[in-house]
Design brief:
28% helix; alpha/beta; 15% strand; 10 helices; 10 strands
């Protein structure tokens, strides 16, 4: 059975210009590539021919979506097929300019979610993994974001901040104060672990003994389409170890009927992961106590927000 979520997430790039300290991108073993517009159209048409349940299209991924120079063409195509489709983009904002915002408004983007983790050049460069000699990146992104937030716009701007101890944690309150009256929504998080089974994974949250049977994603999570057209379990499965289907050759019904996906659902039903080999066994997303995850949210109750997806804000658990 296809999970109940209404969001189809397309990873259009596994190429990124940043090496953020909390991100496992440098350890990625999947190929660095971009999804062609032809492949996107083929996959989008295949999904929408099989079901009309998806009303949201999100562009996240292990790479930077705005490095896909044809992302606006992909959006135009999707909206031409489904005019009422909600389109969301996640970005580090290096290539997010006032001109780009105008283009996104033209093609009908609902919101752009920006990862922006500093309040001066030193903290920004340290967290985003930018060489200290590149002094202009922080200033360019900051100035563009100020201009973008000041524009009268339909497209909402969401800004997120990951608190990294010793790098930018001393700027948290200043960051909130500076951006809260500019952006449409602010979210301040503590970083997650990206799964704990694989060598190179980031360990930032304690994995609690008291765990939920499931994070909810195998039942209520978005459809995750990787850059090559394969389908994996969730956004925390950064290296595609929980890939259970290929949308290029299989239907959604076939993909979600595979034995591997059924195994994942079975573990998430019983809460028994022993011997499964799944990253879910020690994933912090199953922590029962999530009170330390979100530090600030300008719109939602933080304890309710952590139960929702990071894109369409649909309920997970």
């Amino acid at each position: 059975m296809i999970p109940t979520n209404n969001d189809m997430r397309f990873e259009v790039s596994t190429v990124c210009n940043y090496k953020c300290v909390m991100c496992p991108y440098p350890d990625l073993t999947r190929k660095n590539e971009r999804m062609s517009t032809d492949l996107f159209k083929f996959l989008f048409d295949k999904i929408t021919a099989e079901t009309d349940k998806f009303d949201t299209l999100t562009f996240p991924g292990m790479g930077e979506p705005l490095l896909d120079k044809e992302i606006d063409k992909k959006i135009e195509y999707a909206k031409s097929k489904k005019p009422n489709l909600t389109v969301l983009i996640l970005t580090n904002a290096t290539y997010f300019t006032p001109e780009k915002l105008a283009r996104f408004e033209e093609v009908g983007v609902e919101s752009v979610r920006v990862s922006y983790y500093g309040m001066d050049q030193k903290s920004y460069n340290a967290v985003h993994g930018i060489k200290s000699s590149n002094a202009t990146t922080y200033e360019m992104v900051r100035d563009n974001m100020i201009k973008i937030c000041a524009m009268k716009k339909k497209t909402k701007v969401i800004m997120t901040y990951n608190i990294m101890k010793g790098l930018n944690d001393h700027f948290t309150e200043e960051w909130i104060s500076f951006w809260k009256d500019r952006a449409d929504l602010l979210e301040v998080w503590r970083p997650h672990n990206w799964g704990t089974t694989y060598q190179g994974s980031k360990q930032y949250r304690e994995v609690q003994e008291n765990k939920l049977a499931s994070c909810g994603r195998p039942f209520n999570g978005p459809l995750q389409i990787q850059v090559d057209g394969t389908v994996n379990m969730c956004c925390f499965d950064w290296d595609g170890k929980l890939t259970f289907g290929d949308l290029k050759t299989q239907s959604l019904e076939e993909i979600f009927a595979t034995s591997f996906f059924k195994k994942i659902q079975q573990c998430h039903t019983t809460g028994d992961y022993k011997g499964s080999g799944l990253i879910c066994e020690n994933c912090d997303q199953r922590n029962a106590d999530k009170s330390d995850v979100m530090v600030y949210n300008s719109r939602f109750n933080p304890q309710e927000r952590v139960k929702l997806t990071s894109s369409s804000y649909s309920k997970l658990v």
